[in-house]
């Protein structure tokens, strides 16, 4: 087990992704790290194709894509009540298929969804204070 706090790794050159990363940062104890901010130690823990989706590193595990955001949600203040429900749903292959399918659909449409929810991507911010 690592001393590193649970860490959400995401595409920090995406305004939609930044909106969600900030959402979880404000509602959880997750450390948020963008792809452009990866240390060699964190990069080593990620899959080779890490830029394909978000990842959550926690409890010695790497959760990727839909599972990373599921983990971020249940670790947030909003998701606390849903932990038992999500734990139950994980018993069904269909749940995993739906979770990952929704993640892929959102990822493929994040440009359009960014018109509704978006922030200046962290990788493009001039200062650490801009949101």
Task: Walk me through this protein's architecture.
By secondary structure, the protein is of the alpha+beta class. It has one domain (about 5-125). Helices cover about 40% and strands about 10% of the residues. The protein is built from six helices and four strands; from the N terminus they run βαβαββαααα. It has helices at about 15-25, 40-45, 65-75, 85-90, 95-110, 110-115; strands spanning about 5-10, 30-35, 55-60, 60-65. Strands 2-1-3-4 form a four-stranded mixed β-sheet. A hairpin with a 2-residue loop joins strand 3 and strand 4 (about 60-65). The longest helix is centred in the C-terminal third of the chain and has 16 residues, at about 95-110. It starts with 6 loop residues before the first strand and ends in an 18-residue tail after the last helix. The model has no long low-confidence stretch (mean pLDDT about 90).
Brief rundown of the structure:
This protein is of the alpha+beta class. The chain is built from six helices and four strands. A four-stranded mixed beta sheet has the order 2-1-3-4.
The fraction of residues assigned to DSSP E strands is 5-15%
Any low-confidence stretches, pLDDT <50, length ≥5? Answer: none
| Major sheet characteristics | 4 strands, mixed
Distance between the termini: 33 Å
Summarize model confidence as the mean pLDDT.
92
């Amino acid at each position: 087990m690592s001393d590193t706090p649970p860490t959400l790794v995401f595409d920090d050159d995406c305004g939609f992704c930044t909106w969600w990363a900030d959402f979880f940062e404000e509602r959880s104890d997750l450390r948020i790290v963008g792809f452009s901010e990866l240390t060699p130690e964190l990069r080593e823990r990620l899959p080779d194709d890490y830029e394909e989706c978000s990842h959550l590193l926690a409890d010695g595990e790497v959760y990727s894509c839909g599972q990373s955001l599921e983990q971020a949600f249940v670790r947030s203040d909003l998701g606390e009540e849903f932990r038992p429900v999500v734990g139950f749903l994980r018993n069904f292959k269909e749940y995993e298929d739906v979770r990952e399918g929704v993640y892929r659909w959102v990822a493929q449409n994040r440009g359009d969804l960014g018109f509704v929810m978006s922030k200046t991507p962290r990788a493009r911010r001039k200062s650490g204070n801009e949101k």
